[in-house]
Specification:
This protein is an alpha+beta fold. The chain is built from seven helices and seven strands, in the order αααααααβββββββ. The strands form two sheets. The chain has a four-stranded antiparallel beta sheet, with no helix packed on it. Strands 1-4-5 form a three-stranded mixed beta sheet, with no helix packed on it.
């Protein structure tokens, strides 16, 4: 009905944001979210205002996206396509990483202060992650904040030994290598980790690993040097105490990248791989935390 159309148009007009003139089609007005009064009838609401540090990072990140990330997108695509290898690491990414680090936009994902970073709360990091999501194939990696490395780095930050941190965490925080998490398997619903069948068996001072993993994101990237593998160390233990996680270097004998799996017919630069582990030996010191704590 005409009156309904007019009513909806009036309502939309009243709710519209003030017009903005972004410097890039994906940019948004550089105003931070502030407290909004939606408390009438509902009690006190949440204050989503950013901390001063997060606001500074946000402004710096918006400028970095406009000046470096968006212009690099066609270069990134060309450099991947040129050698005919969909998993080729484009040199422009290293240039972006250097610039992001120079601007202080580096390892922002860590939620607590460590010897490497000051840490950001989830409330402060979320708006920054949203901005990097506007160029998902480039921006997160440029800031050293891309999956699956973020979860792997946080895991080692909290539970890794000093030796494990020195060997694998430090070069990962420096952006020198990549990592992957080898958890899901082809024969079961691996989203429930209690279904995992890959075996991790103790043999003297070593663990011997046998199993097959797939959809292991990041494994096709030539810079991926370490897997965090989940498997069963004690199938007879309580259902949720059977699994453990161990560090498996990519070049360990018995580790074979069988194939990179396509997603809707496409290959991602970092890849999602099927990997076989056959009589793979790693030292017991590669265990993360305790047996059964996976």
């Amino acid at each position: 009905l005409p009156w309904r159309v007019a009513h909806v148009a009036s309502w939309r007009s009243s709710c519209a944001d003030p017009p903005a003139e972004p410097t890039h089609p994906r940019s948004r007005p550089s105003r931070a979210p502030g407290p909004v009064d939606r408390t009438e009838g509902y009690g006190p609401g949440m204050d989503f205002a950013l901390s001063p540090r997060a606001e500074t990072l946000r402004e710096e990140l918006l400028d970095f996206m406009d000046s470096h990330v968006y212009p690099a997108e066609p270069v990134h695509a060309e450099q991947i396509a040129a050698p005919g290898d969909p998993h080729h690491h484009p040199p422009v990414m290293e240039e972006l990483k250097a610039e992001a680090r120079r601007r202080g936009l580096w390892n922002l994902f860590l939620p607590r202060q460590t010897k490497w970073t000051d840490g950001l709360s989830n409330a402060d990091y979320a708006p920054l992650a949203e901005i990097t999501g506007r160029s998902p194939g480039i921006a997160p990696q440029a800031l050293n904040c891309s999956a699956p490395d973020t979860g792997n780095m946080e895991l080692l930050t909290q539970f890794g030994t000093d030796e494990q941190k020195e060997q694998w965490l430090v070069p990962r925080l420096e952006g020198e290598i990549r990592s992957a998490c080898a958890m899901t398997e082809p024969a079961m619903a691996s989203s429930d980790a209690t279904n995992i069948e890959c075996r991790i068996e103790r043999d003297g001072d070593d663990y011997v690993i046998n199993g097959r993993k797939w959809w292991i994101s990041g494994a096709a990237d030539e810079r991926c040097k370490i897997f965090i593998l989940m498997g069963k160390t004690d199938p007879s233990a309580s259902r949720h105490l059977q699994q453990s996680m161990v560090l498996v270097p990519r070049d360990t004998p018995g580790v074979v990248i069988e194939r990179a799996l396509p997603v809707f017919g496409y290959q991602d630069q970092e890849g999602h791989c099927e990997i076989s582990f056959t009589d793979v030996r790693v030292p017991v010191s590669n265990l993360i935390a305790d047996e059964g704590s996976g």
